[in-house]
Design a protein that fits this description.
This protein is of the alpha/beta class and 361 residues long. The protein contains 17 helices and twelve strands.
Amino acid sequence: MKKSLIALLCIIIALTAGCPAPNHRLINVSYDPTRELYREFNQAFIEHYYNETGKTIRIEVTHGGSSAQARNVINGLEADVVTLALAYDIDSIAQHTGLLPPDWQARLPHNSTPYSSTVVFLVRDGNPKNIKSWECLIRPDVEVVVADPRTSGVARWAYLAGWGYILKRELAEHGNLYKRLHDPDAAAELAAAQADIDAAQETAREYISAIYQNVRILPQGARSASQVFVRQNTGDVLLDWENQAKLTINEFGKGQIEIVVPPISILAEPPVALIDGNVDKRGTREVAQAYLEFLYSPIGQDMVARHYYRPRDAEILAKYRDNFVEVEMFTVDEVFGGWHKAQQEHFETGGVFERIYIPVR
């Protein structure tokens, strides 16, 4: 009990004049919707680490669009750890800085993703536009709110979720071939269905183009998109993280907005990583590694689930099963050949998004 009380005091040491400096200062560069999670997680970890080591910690977290946060690290922000929305953003840090190895995802369980999420729709109370599935987003009477896929992780997940849904629909007569478009073992099936696959890809491109014709503005990140939808009362449907949508409802209360879970969505896997070059420079490797591993602990996983992320721990997922709706999901690897291929084809300069998106004037 005494240690716990001391640990709780350590949480505010860094903010209290005249108190000793903490043993470590840890910087976590994160994406938009994790504010509530890491506010609680950091306090729990500070107490845990003090009880384990007798050392005090100050933890600082920054939030923003995932790609924008990755660029901040590339440009010199000395993150000890990054907890971002998609693997490509951490790959970019590795590629442009050499601060962590290319195989960083192999260093923690589940490809360094301690939790998962998916993309859902947030609509006005009573769902006045009767938005049920992805097809509804291209109706002329529906205004869509979504963040900018050039800066936001959830916006890229949402874009790919819609694209994958159309591929599944258009290739329905071929079973689950849409999940095997990059599977070498499916070469013969793919060759036989190539004409149908090409037609389905074109239909998906037209569909995504139609969605963005219904988008008036593109906020930089998920949190700012939520503000536009809820506080500014703009739009009919918001494409958002499952966890962010539930937190938004908790904040504003039922009777204003509600969640619609589409029948098919994407398995979103936000990864975490230790930035080797920075932790070695700052002497924080041990505490940074412990911080990330604590996300996989029973305490961390329980906290993840309470903040509406889908935990990796099966028992904890079962404990919170009422928080999560059953939904069919596909992965970026299955449908798009991985994040590098998806990024290059869809989101880089000259990619599909740049060619189809025409800002509303």
